[in-house]
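Handout, section 3.2

Students often ask what a structure token actually looks like in practice. Rather than define it abstractly, here is a full record for Glycerol-3-phosphate dehydrogenase. The first block is the sequence as you would receive it.
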Amino acid sequence: MKTPIGGGKGFPRTDASRAQWISQHRSGLSSARTGQLLERYGTRAQEVIEALADGHDEALDFDADFTTGEIRYLAQHESVVHLIDLVLRRTNHAFTGGLSRELLEELAEHTGAVLGWDEAKRAQEVDATIAHLKDYNGVDVGGTSVQAPTAVPAS
């Protein structure tokens, strides 16, 4: 017997059940955006959707596939201590080839707003993340921005 964990529990397995889940959990978001969150977070997307209801949710400048509200949610609820936690364990940024210094600075800004980081701490987290990615993952982020993934579906 397979036992789903986390967001896999109760995950809709058919097109019809997926459409029903999206319809029941939209909470003011578009179907496309709700579907994106369902794919990203599983049925735990409901918690993310509730967190986004405050209306302070805009696409990131350097990765329009993620939003400011998502980053704040992850920082607050997913045991993020360092920026590298967010980058490697809570988002797909390290796996999609879309990392840049600018994106890391933007992520640090929104994560730091939740975790109480000042400007010096944000800069330290960005530098530590860049060093970790280079030393342990062979990724040279440098200072060059790369093409961001597709945009967040309209709310």
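Discussion prompt for tutorial groups: Helices lie at 15-25, 31-41, 45-52, 68-77, 83-90, 101-115, 119-137. How would you have guessed this from the sequence alone?
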